Fold:
Amino acid sequence: MRFERRDAPHWAPRVDVASMMLQVLGALVPAAIVHVWYFGPGLVFNLLVAAIFAVAGEALMMWARGRQPEAALRDYSALVIAALLAFALPSLTPWWVTATGALFAVVVAKHLYGGLGFNIFNPAMAGYVVILVAFPMHLNLWVGPRMGDIDYQHLTIVQTLAFTLTGNLPDALTFDAVARATPLDVMKTGLNNMATTVEIRANPIMGDFGGRGWEWIGNFLAIGGAWLLIRKIIRWQIPVGVGLGLLGPATLMYLVDPGANPSPGFHLFAGATILCAFFIATDPVSAATSPKGRLIYGLGIGLLIYCIRTWGSYADGVAFAVLIMNMAVPAIDRFTRPRIVGHAEESVNRG
Amino acid sequence: MSAPTYDLGKLHGGLRLAAHKQESTASAITDIPLPAQLMLPLQQHAGEPAQPVVSIGDRVLKGQVVAEPDGEMGAPVHASSSGTVVAIEQWPVSRRFGDKAPCIIVATDGHDEAFPPWSSGDYRAMPPADLLLRILDGGIVGLGGAVFPTAQKLMQARAMQADYLILNGVECEPYISCDDMLMQQHAGEIVGGAQVLMHALCIDACLIVVESDKPEAIRRLGEELAAASDERVTLKQVPTIYPSGGEDQLVQLVTNREVPSGGLPTDVGCVVQNVGTAAAVYDWIVRGEPLISRITTVTGDGVASPVNVRARIGTTVADVIDGAGGYRDNPRHLVIGGPMTGKAVSTDEVPIVKASNCILVLNDAPQAGTELACVRCGECAAVCPVQLQPQQLHWYACADDEHKLREFGLIDCIECGCCDLVCPSHIPLTADFRVAKGRIRELADEKARAERARQRFEARNERLEREHAERNAELAQQKETAKAAGPAAIAEILARKRGDKNEDDGA
Structure:
């Protein structure tokens, strides 16, 4: 009798990239719902725009590289890039801004470096930084969070969609009426004006720790992140590294001078800290690869976020921190190789 | 020597896999009927193939040596039953390189007439060195799958003064249950074999290691140990994690000693034998029966009734499966060995050899999806029992970077297959590494060949130069002698030369 031959192991793999990506997307859903609750439907439109352009860009590049476009679309990695980019953007963002970011992320940061698995830089963050440089004023259009005790101008779904498509608010409304500074901005401006953190925190937009709405989005991102940890889609080293790298110096400075330094709780819940720790920095392709290396990589990102927030000119520093650490990955990988069983410690890492 | 204390180590990585063992452990070991023909490959062991000592037409008896080891590494091959040698030719076999190998083909006569059994009396009266040579004659090789000739391994251990004998009853690979059934049904032989091995090795510490998912085997071994009341032997359970039964992994697990890269367990004072090997040693030394049969697991969704069988070495897989109840449905893959490390063969004409611990028949190909690029998730590194970084090795294997492959420990890869199972990009890492290893070996051979050629060339040049110098020196010497003898002598020499010439012309 004749049989087909193939190489060992004769056992189906347990996971695939597509299901990993889908689980990452799934882990973002609870936070997305909270986001929409606090900041309106803008996120949904941003997601749609980013997804359309990311997928189109991916298909185009695969075609241009002479590969099957549908093969790349089946792994959902373009959608993950789109989702992370959309989460980083204010809920009121005109479509061309989002599209620029999504296309740069997929076409330049991902495919010009060789496509899935070969990109040096985190594509979503590269796309975000391009927007930050090209359309700086658009990234300040954060609507006020939904809250009972202060008035905020509520935009309807249609009005939000109209803004996404045209970049114009309804005639009766001005930007001042709908847009609010983010808690990170409020903190930075306040500290620059020599206000104490206690005075700054009196603003109801600052919430309990890191800003109204923001802290709840953070909680649900953390739940999604915890689920990814349980599912072993991500490992603990990078989230813990980011947390320690940011909260370590934040705690120290807060203990030294609580009036001039925001609390570690603020740093944890404000801005994109939790999104970064669980979803952005954990992109395996552009991260360090050994467990020890990933801890160092995370620590570096956390530390850089702290430095940029404290001494930089940007309110948040996640994108820059991630991109800078992306550049450090080859060096980290080189010096954090695990000792191979049966080898002496010193013979490793000699490079 | 003081009583050993076992320092438990920890295995890095590994996987918990669905065992699929209960299918084949439900019923007792059955005997496969004697086949009409036996195909006895000359190479069933690590090392050089054995050399036939019978000719076509010879009548052979069960247990008679038909091929003798050639060189330092090897083991004899015995006829598994009585009959006539009908051919010595290439026949399909399951092995790593090539599909066919020379086999002695014996047509059985059905009498199963045994060669007069060897009897030594009590092995305990034999000097250990003689006992080792005796074990060599039994054709015994490591039955766990690596088929390292047992006698050579033991001799090495003697030379290195190993202090632990470890009997490997872990059997961590899914589907395979032949060791489990052996321990359940022949625990006495294993304990007896341990005693023979300890005597041969002059070791008085033996550890029998069994995976925790084999309670019945542990119970039976415990009973036998209690009956033997041999304090030198300890029974040890280890957690069920693949690949804790790998030789080096097992040593690390139960002694917390790491086998050095490129080394052997004897380098850290351990000698590991499979429980099946110990039983085979007992059968040979105490009962006089050489290694002519083995227990094999016949399993998978492509066989009608999964079971463990005892088959004569040389019985074809087709005959074994026939004797075990036949195929079921439309089997697509035939794997000799387990699902993680076994080798798929294209025909069931291959014979059962000393290494054949399992025949796995699968109806459906385990479908790996499309291969994508590595996303560097690092899961492969997390499960690697040797703590390699397969994600990095993969890059260097693609780039054929020999230097980096060596630096990142490709040679240390044990090809357990764990990385393949956790790779989300479905990269056939183990298969790629196997190819890369072959390539590195090739390069090393090439280098060695080039080096040898260079040395030969240099030696030749040196020799030519030396001869040239010697010749010159000789000529100079002659000149000096002539000069010293004076002009008359030179004239005489020249005259003689002319005379020679004239004679030549005249002739």
Remarks:
- DSSP finds 16 helices and no strands in chain A.
- Chain A touches chain B at residues 1-17, 19-20, 71, 75, 114-118, 232, 235, 284-285, 287, 289-291, 294, 333, 337-343 (CB under 8 Å).
- The first helix of chain A runs from residue 17 to 39.
